[in-house]
Specification:
The structure holds 2 protein chains of 2 kinds. Chain A is mainly β. Chain A is built from no helices and 12 strands. In chain B, strand 5 and strand 6 form a beta hairpin. Classes of the chains: A mainly beta, B mainly beta. Chains A and B meet through strand 5, strand 6 and strand 11 of A and strand 4, strand 5 and strand 10 of B.
Chain lengths: ~110, ~110
């Protein structure tokens, strides 16, 4: 069975700081990888996804993630955060298109103005 | 941009009562899902639905839960006899074949007293 772990539960940083959120998954086969964001009081929105090809994926709002197959990792990065990036971030995987997503525990990010 | 819409946005119910949560997925989606998120915890898969039947369900999805798509548009989650531990945010999602991503609704917050 798949599992997804996010190492940081809470991250607090100042505006303009760089952000990196860790995500590791356990599954030996081919996976699709996703990062979702949940702003306070809102629904889950897709930030970016990886299916195949270039392991460095660029998403919306200046976010990017790098798939490192040998490390079973898909870390999310943003070079310079803004106050509006305050949200909870979820890493998720599935085995194939249309299959259920397995989510990590989420990382709450608070950006101080 | 097409949306997944959920009703009600918030429901308060007494323990033992039946609850029906409704979802209107995006029209060309074929796979549908229910997830839940207990406050402060991870997003958990409940059930997936394809071609008018359940394709996969989790351990959480016991006999108290059922899903149906009664009229080809609405997708409902019924909890027959609610328990305190059913208090959570319930998210409906649809799978977009064009993009390979899950589109989530804004969620229905269920509070069981």
């Amino acid at each position: 069975a798949q599992s997804v772990s996010q190492h940081n539960h809470h991250v607090i940083l100042s505006e303009a700081a760089s952000l990196e959120l860790g995500c590791n998954y356990s599954y030996g086969g081919t996976v699709n990888l996703f990062w979702y964001v949940q702003y306070p009081g809102q629904h889950l929105q897709l930030l970016l996804k990886y299916f195949s090809g270039d392991p460095l994926v660029k998403g919306i709002k200046g976010f990017e993630a790098e798939f490192i197959k040998s490390k079973f990792s898909f870390n999310l990065r943003k070079p310079s955060v803004q106050w509006s990036d305050t949200a909870e971030y979820f890493c998720a995987v599935n085995e194939a298109a249309g299959n259920k997503l397995t989510f990590g525990g989420g990382t709450r990010v608070l950006v101080k103005p | 941009e097409p949306e997944v819409t959920q009703t009600p946005s918030h429901q308060v119910t007494q323990m033992g009562q039946e609850v029906i949560l409704r979802c209107v997925p995006i029209s060309n989606h074929l796979y549908f899902y229910w997830y839940r998120q207990i406050l402060g915890q991870k997003v958990e898969f409940l059930v997936s639905f394809y071609n008018n039947e359940i394709s996969e369900k989790s351990e959480i999805f016991d006999d108290q839960f059922s899903v149906e798509r009664p009229d080809g548009s609405n997708f409902t989650l019924k909890i027959r006899s609610t328990k305190l531990e059913d208090s959570a945010m319930y998210f409906c999602a649809g799978f977009g074949r064009d993009t390979g991503e899950l589109f989530f609704g804004e969620g229905s917050r269920l509070t069981v007293l």
